[in-house]
Specification:
mainly alpha, 1 helix, elongated
Amino acid sequence: MDQLGLSILMTTGMPR
């Protein structure tokens, strides 16, 4: 898992 993947996952959880 990369930081980008984690970031995307977080964004999917919250729109902002």
